[in-house]
Amino acid sequence: MSSNRSLEPSSLSLNDLPWQIEYNNDRCTLCGQCTAVCPVKAIALHPFQKRIVKTSVGKNAEHSNAYDTFYGIRQDTRVENACIGCAMCTLVCPNDAIRPKRNPGLDRMKFHINQHGIPRRRGGRRNDSGSVLDRIKFTRISMLTDPALDAGRHEFEMSTLLGRVLPPRENMKCLREKGWIPPVREIYPLIIGGMSFGALSPTMWEGLQMGVAYLNEEMGMPVRICTGEGGCPPRLLRSRFLKYVILQIASGYFGWDEIIHAIPHMKEDPCAIEIKYGQGAKPGDGGLLMWHKVNKLIAAIRGVPQGVSLPSPPTHQTQYSIEESVAKMILSMSMAWGFRVPVYPKISASSTSLAVMNNLTRNEYAAGLAIDGEDGGTGAAYAVSMDHMGHPIASCVRDNYLNLTSLGKQNEVPIFAGGGVGKNGNIAANAAALIMLGASGVQVGKYLMQAAAGCVGTEEDRCNVCNLGICPKGITSQDPRLYRRLNPEDVAQRLVDIFVSFDTQLKKIVAPLGRSTSLPIGMSDALGIDDKNIADRLSIKYVV
Amino acid sequence: MCRLFAITSKDPQSPMLAIKALDVMKEGHDGSGVGLLLQDLGGTFEEMKDAPILSGIFTEEGICRLDLFMMKLGFMTKHKISLKPPKTRVEGIPRRHIYLIRAYELPEGWDALTQEELAVKLLEVRLKIREMGEEKNDMIVFSFWPDTIMLKEIGDPMKLAEYLGLDRKELEARVIMAQGRQNTNYAISLYACHPFFIKGYCTMTNGENTAFIPIKDFLSSRNIPGYTGYQSDSEVFAHILHFSMEELGLGIDGYKHVITPLQRDDLAKHPNFEFLDHLKKTCRPLIIDGPNMVIGTLPDHSMFMVQDRKKLRPGVVGGKPGMFAFSSEICGLDAVIPDRDKTMDIQPMHLDTAIVSPERQEVNICRQTEALNLPL
Questions:
Q1: Across residues A170-190, what is the average pLDDT?
Q2: A145 vs B184, B281, B287: nearest CB
Q3: What are the strands, taking DSSP E only, across A375-482?
Q4: What's the gap in Å between the CA of A518 and the closest CA on chain B?
Q5: For residue A1, pLDDT beyond 70
Q6: Could you give the domains of chain B?
Q7: Contact yes or no for A521 and B214 at CB 8 A
């Protein structure tokens, strides 16, 4: 733009962008791979002009003034084409000539991502690397008075229970009198949280399912995966692998026509039914699958037309009270599988979670409560919801567990915690901390996308375009050109790696605490933190 | 690690026998305290098997308050032993006014109560006295139960026994449990001393209980009177025993299935798989995970020993018909029953519950993989 032109309010310079391309013309061969791979077309081949002035001190020497044209890569400064920092250009560059760099100054683009009156929407995360869970230490190490256990050699049983557990006496009575005992599943405490078929690409979904099947059948680890709100492929519904799957129903009921019709043909019951009422990343907001991703297959599985955005309502619209939305829905879902399948709600962490929990304690069909904290991920949401709405998971889980303890129901209604587990890579430590605060297990999503499929998202607002169907790694895209980049078998292999290494890490945490044969749920005496206020709030030790 | 010794004998024995065993095992305790349980009593108390006996430590004011309280309830003293400490002080033993062991005549009308109702009433009285004592620091009560005496004090077991004259005839008993304490806390609360007693069930343990907090949370939220205290992480073993047998109606062979259930594969092969699977799931917070050996007695005077899931602590049972001893170390057993057939000694392993029944003829080993005597 020349200097005598008028400026538009949203005219941005490279300096205003959150990510800036560092480009080395000397190393570039102009192969074009970077421009081809860039998901947002932030870079393009561009002619540059260079003036070459040649002067000489010689008396009769000729002076010359020539303009040379050369080609290089130019970064686009338009809001819609701003670099997202995914670094796919760096990945494909054969000569290491290009890379995005985070702008250390103020991200002025933030003031302009609302062109045409549409506020910013994105996928991903909250983009805040702070984590209370990371700060929690395990301080009750068995020393001399009590020999520590050997994580490598002693026997361990690190499973948990999903389902309503009756009090021991009542359970024995039901057993004796052949009464109904709520179904309880013994599962691995790290659960793959709800990520829908649609939000995830077919290759990603297939990879996760294959990995789960392998973990169960070859490794003997009872790992379970939740479908998210997007239905389930018909072949999986009719296969024996359904027992490893938690089917999710949410306010859009997507895919449930197919599921209900498949019930008579099911060889196995699903592991459980999760009724999603809220999501930690965007509490009070429904699911969203943008039209870019609703292709023929997704439309068929979800039972909707192709190419339309699929916003789920913020709540289950057919119901108007907690009795309706929780009690009746749990009962209906239980009834659909003849009361053989645990049914539990998932809510976003909130200061009202306790009210939900209290309600569930009086509902014998409620199989547990999943609570999703503000650090949870999402495939698509308004940035304002992700950035400013929500409740941290740690105190919410703790409050709910202590509330259950005061009612004497801490083993009866299991709490599953999610949202930010492993957000900075410390998955086992975060999971163990939540378990010792009172969770029976944890749900994890983003970590698996990063570790099992190479998602490039970080807490620095990197990439975050899951909503647009242009995922450069093919994890959240429905475009075959993109999702073919992801080999499902590689995903499965990585998933197995992750769970096996998580298991070793978990043992390395619990063994020194003297625990091995039962998951240390609520073992809060093992925890400490270097902040007095947090310690008081969580009823754990303050250590410095 | 504390040292433990228990003996069950058809003829009444002096508690000095157990003290002697603790003395032999001295290198394993630091003389910071001793706890003693005497049941199936000989001596004078033998003629009053149904009379509840109150055991505790009282100040001068405490004893007055106790008398007033008990009289109000209608209890009459039937027989008592007052262990008055000698005037000369012994280093390491605190100065007390009186160690009281007093059998009471039940108040009028209590005779008509069922055993169960009576047990509840006696427990209520004990808890009330404990509460009153904690208010003014003038009473410590260990047990209030028929045919049962308990004594706990800080100090070296042998010195303490001599100091209090525990060799007297009227303290002889057929069931004796003793713990030599290895203190791991700075302040010693006598309520943290083993053995722990609730309604005829009594246990003592060596080793730390790493799952203490979740177990305590579970027990104290059951709304069962007496599931309180927990000054020691080992008190829960007694309450779990009571819970398994009284609340769930299990036999002693079920206790180990509650505290150290079988793992998935072994459980699947068990003849009572369905029952045990449900038991494991519903009693999950009661699973102990630490290195613990538990010695206990039941209301019928059976005595047992169980080990943790990995058998990380020592424990041996041996003896001869009529007299068997349970000891944390073999040297303790050797000191008390040297003339037994040592080849018959049993060191229970990770699946075993060793039980000597009230007939005291043999040691029965109940393996966790065997079929249960179910309440169904």
A1: 96
A2: B184
A3: 378-382, 415-418, 441-444
A4: 7
A5: no
A6: 3-49+147-367 (3.60.20.10)
A7: yes
Cα–Cα distance list, A345 to A73, A74, A251, A364, B200 (Å): 51, 50, 12, 13, 44
**Residue A426: pLDDT band with limits 50, 70, 90:** very high
The two three-digit tokens of residue A260, written as one number: 């209900």
Nearest-neighbour CA in chain B from A171: distance (Å): 7
Amino acid found at A344:
Y
Q: Alpha carbon of A11 to those of A6, A19, A137, A379: distances in Å?
A: 10, 16, 48, 29
Please state, as a whole number, how many other Cβ atoms lie within 10 Å of the Cβ of residue A141: 11
Give the closest-approach CA distance of B103 to chain A in angstroms: 35
Backbone angles phi, psi at A521, to 5 degrees: -65, 125
Enumerate residues 210 to 239 of chain B having a beta carbon within 8 A of any beta carbon in chain A.
Answer: 210-214, 217-218, 221-223
Contacts of A507 in chain B (CB under 8 A): none
| Main-chain phi, psi angles of A462, to 5 degrees | -95, 135
Q: Which of B221, B248, B291 sits opposite A406 (nearest CB)?
A: B221
| Calpha distance A261→A234 (Å, rounded) | 10
> Six-digit token pair at A244?
């490893």
Judge contact between B204 and B234, C-beta under 8 A.
Answer: yes
Distances (CA, A) of A401 to A455, A524, B144: 33, 11, 36
Listing DSSP states for B162-183 in one string gives HHHTTT-GGG-EEEEEEEE---
User: Closest-CA residue in chain A for B260?
Assistant: A517
If residue B52 lies in a helix (H) or strand (E), which one and from where to where?
A: strand B52-58
State residue B184's pLDDT score.
60
- pLDDT, tens digit, for every residue of B187-245? 667 888 889 999 999 999 988 889 999 999 999 999 999 999 998 889 999 999 999 99
Q: What is the dihedral of CA A212, A218, A223, A228, to 10 degrees?
A: 20
Q: For an interface test with A, give the residue of B219, B248, B282, B311 to mutate (most A CBs within 10 A).
A: B282
What domains sit in chain A, N to C, each tagged with a CATH number? 14-118 (3.30.70), 132-542 (3.20.20.70)
Burial class (CB in 10 A: 0-12, 13-18, 19+), B126: buried
Nearest to A380 by CA among A269, A509, A478, A236: A478
- A to B CB pairs, distance under 8 Å: 109
pLDDT of residue A324: 72
* Minimal CA separation from A522 to chain B, in Å: 6
In the prediction, which pLDDT does A463 show?
95
Q: Whole-angstrom Cα distance, residue A83 to residue A76?
A: 8
The angle formed by the CA atoms of residues A165, A171 and A176, to the nearest 5 degrees, is 150
Q: What angle do CA A222, A224, A227 make, to 5 degrees?
A: 165
Q: Which of B213, B248, B281 sits opposite A161 (nearest CB)?
A: B281
Peptide bond into B195 cis (omega under 30): yes
Q: For the CA atoms of chain A, what is the radius of gyration?
A: 27
CB distance A470 to A131 below 8 Å: no
Average pLDDT, chain A: 93
Task: With a cut of 50, list the residues of chain B below it in pLDDT.
Answer: none
